[in-house]
Structure formats: structure tokens, C-alpha cells
Design a protein that fits this description.
alpha/beta, globular, about 300 residues, eight-stranded parallel beta sheet, single chain, TIM Barrel, about 50% helix
Length: about 300
Amino acid sequence: MKKLKGVIPALIMPFKENGEINEASLKEFIEFLIDKKVNGFYTLGTFGCGPLLSLEERKKATELIVEYTADRIPIITHVGTTTGGATVELAKHAEKTGVDVVAAVPPYYYNHPDEVVVNYYQKLLDAVSIPVFAYNNPPQVGYSISPPLLGRLAEMGLAGVKDSSFDIKVFVHYMNSVKQKDFQFIIGTVPLFYAALAQGAAAGVGGPANVFPEVQLELYDEFQKGNLVRCAELQKKLARLVAIQGIGGVPFTTLIDMYEMRTGKEFGYPHEPMMRCTPEVREKVRQALISEDLLG
């Protein structure tokens, strides 16, 4: 099993105005991030518009990402859906396509009891031979994976968790509840990246690393060196970047503009029903990035 580490962008996806994947922009974007030395990709989650896409669209996106990444860094593909059958279908396809890890939120919309969640992940574990991660995202799912439940899933063979609970206490309780030594803990809440590293997190997944990965990569490197004062400074800068990406409402749409401002290249459109930011919002974002010395 590949050990994940460092900074893993929650990969945003470019679309054409008609809703098709903008393949040229995606390829260029992947090269941009690999050139910046990111440590992996987390694909088709919240920032990747996975829940907005059909199964066939998600499969096509996975095929393109695997092709363009060309085995240079690990790929974690989110395959979670509302049903076990659809999730298993996506997971099998992802494994066949060549991703390294699949991750899944528990089935969302309904507030499912633990036994339903256990059955859902057992089907997923039985379906593939590559590592399976749980993705804890209570704001989007509607409920949380409890620490005791995560411990139970780890005993069944779950390989890791991406936690986006926005609560460091949950992350610590997860670490206390899992007894398997090779279990991997990833934080999905960027403002908690430094705190999670201090608790033993292997990696962080987040949005700002789509455009300015250097900030989070420097924090990770400085943590390895023990430069904790610098880590604290960089964590505050990351928190400000998270605030900037939220100016447009849905962070994914703001990140499109941030990328275009940084690179001067066209990215494309978000998937409907989302829309591009207004000129007024774009100007607010631009001024905020200038204040952070991230734009000239």
C-alpha cells in the first residue's frame, strides 16, 4: 500500500459551457500542479463536483485524470454515492483504471444507522483490492462517522480516513479509536492542517493547494524540520486563503478565478447549477490576493 504524505489538492474540475469536461484545461492544470510538487490528487469529491456528475461522467473524469497524471503521484478517487451498488461500480472502475486509493463518504441524504454504514463499507471492501478510505464530511453527508464506528471499520479492513469534520477533537478521537498501526489519517480541513500534523496526520487535502500549493507545502516541510513558529505563521496564511476562496460563496467557483489570475490561462466553467463568479466578486478576490502578496 502506498503511504500518502504531504499536500494533496482536492482537485477542481474544468468544464465547458455545455457541461462536458474541458479535457485540454484539465491536462494543463494537472501539469501545473505536478510541476509545483504536490504529493497526490484527491479527485471527484466536493471540489471535484463528483456528486453533481453521472456515473458515466465520473468514470470518464477518472480515466482522464489517470491518463494525464501518468503514475507520477498517487491518486485518491472519491466514489461515494447514495447507494452501495453505485459506489461499488465506481470503485471497481477506478481500480481497473489505475487509481491508487478509493475513498467514499457514507451514503448521504438519509441519516443512516451504523449497521447500514457498516454494510455499505463492507460491500466496498469486498469489491476491490486497492486501499479503501472513509471520507467523513458531516456538513455534506448530514451525519458523522463516530470514532467507535471508524474503529470498527478499520478492523474490517478500512485503510484510512479523510476527516473534514472541522473539529480537531474528532480527528484525535479517531486516532485513539483505531488500533491498526498502518491505518492512515488525512485531514481535510485546511485551517487544521498544522494541528493535525502535530497529532500525527500523514497528509492534508484541501482547496487552496489547487492554486497556491507552495504555502501548504512549505508548512509541511517546515513541520518536518521542526520550525514550529514558521508553521504557525503559514497556518494563519492558509486560513486567510480559505477565507479568500469563500468570497464567491462556493469555494470551487472562486478557485477557478484564482487559478486564472495566477496563471493567465483559461480554466473553464464549474458544473451546473454552479456559475462563474461575478466581476465584482472577482475584483474582491483579486484585491485580497494582492494583499497577501500572492498576485502582483
